[in-house]
Design a protein that fits this description.
Helix content is 2%, strand content 38%. The protein is mostly beta strands. The strands form 5 sheets. Strands 8, 12, 13, 17, 21, 25, 29 and 32 form an 8-stranded mixed β-sheet that branches. A hairpin with a 6-residue loop joins strand 1 and strand 2.
Length: 326
């Protein structure tokens, strides 16, 4: 779908056989100079079922069979949901300095097992680090379409990077179209460790996707009120967040988030005097699988301060709403 109005790719536009059955798109075997990359630039990722989270590179096609570069650690079965597409796979983004731009470093659609380490990012208009998965169509095979499809954000690692004065320090999210069911996570097993996020204008670290439906408002559209987790198994540990309105934030459509052994400073209060700063914000009131363990928080004098809310659950009743009612 495009902006929630017209379909970017409909099933009728996809390839079909003489019996009217949808057929897969086969990329060229070699680089033929066209717009489509050759089959050796494609990857197979398992989204659900046996073998979940694994990715393998395609080395060639034999008829309707894709040959992979190495065996599966756990063999997918007919119950597994598998996606095939191009990807940014197993790269190192190390030792860069990015300042005064739009976004410092982003992993944008189909980014798998990459490492971002030892970078310095400052004064971005948007997020310092932007990690993004995608889920915008049910079509099993589709022609080229910008920012569309089902694409993974699997097992990427952000480590030892400093981010100063950006909107959010780091955002882990999935661009799920609101009229589609989740069914399986698009973002899985990402880790943020040993990073510093200084004076973020919004959150220091936020892990969030689809927002939960408001109480009393029910939309019967498929997927509209689906709060199934699109982001699963995110580890946030040994990080420092200083001077953000919310230091660490788990938003909607997430599961299995671990906030462990992090530190939150509030030396220069970002919010006005009528609202408190929050160290850990969990939007879902019943998020049993969001772990907050062995973290430390300090205020302007280097010790605990009464104006800091260490943990708050349920965003609809958040203290930040108080200021909006005035």
């Amino acid at each position: 779908m495009l902006n929630g109005k017209e379909p970017a790719v409909t099933r009728q536009l996809l390839a079909h056989d003489d019996k009217g059955n949808e057929t897969p798109f086969w990329p060229p075997d070699i680089d033929d100079g066209g717009v489509e990359p050759p089959v050796g630039e494609y990857y197979v990722s398992v989204f659900k079922g046996p073998g979940q989270g694994q990715t393998r590179r395609v080395i060639r096609r034999e008829g309707e069979r894709l040959v992979l570069d190495k065996p599966w650690a756990e063999q997918p079965t007919s119950e597994s949901i598998v996606a095939v597409g191009t990807a940014y796979y197993q790269n190192l983004i190390v030792g860069n300095n990015a300042s005064d731009g739009m976004t410092g470093i982003q992993l944008w659609i189909s980014c798998i097992e990459n490492i971002i380490a030892g970078n310095s990012i400052a004064r971005q208009r948007k997020e310092g680090i932007f990690l993004y998965a995608n889920g915008t169509t049910l079509a099993s095979s589709m022609p080229r379409s910008w920012n569309r499809g089902i694409s993974p954000l699997f097992f990427n690692q952000l480590e030892g990077t400093r981010v100063d004065e950006c909107s959010a320090g780091a955002l882990v999210t999935s661009g799920d179209f609101p009229d589609l069911p989740i069914e399986f996570p698009r973002a899985l097993g990402n880790t943020l460790r040993h990073n510093s996020f200084i004076r973020s204008r919004t959150d220091g670290v936020i892990v969030a996707s689809r927002k939960k439906a408001k109480v009393g408002k029910v939309d019967t559209t498929v997927g509209k009120d689906d709060t199934s987790p699109s982001i699963v198994g995110t580890i946030v540990e040994f990080n420092v967040v200083r001077d953000a309105s919310i230091a660490y934030h788990a938003g909607g459509s997430v599961d299995g988030v671990v906030f462990r052994r992090n530190h939150a400073y509030f030396w220069y209060p970002v919010n006005n005097d009528s609202i408190s700063n929050v160290a850990f914000q969990i939007d879902a009131k019943d998020a049993a699988n969001i772990a907050i363990e062995a973290n430390t928080v300090e205020g302007i004098k280097g010790v605990d301060d009464a104006y800091i809310i260490k943990e708050h659950r349920g965003y609809e009743s958040n203290v930040f709403q108080k200021n909006q009612k005035k």
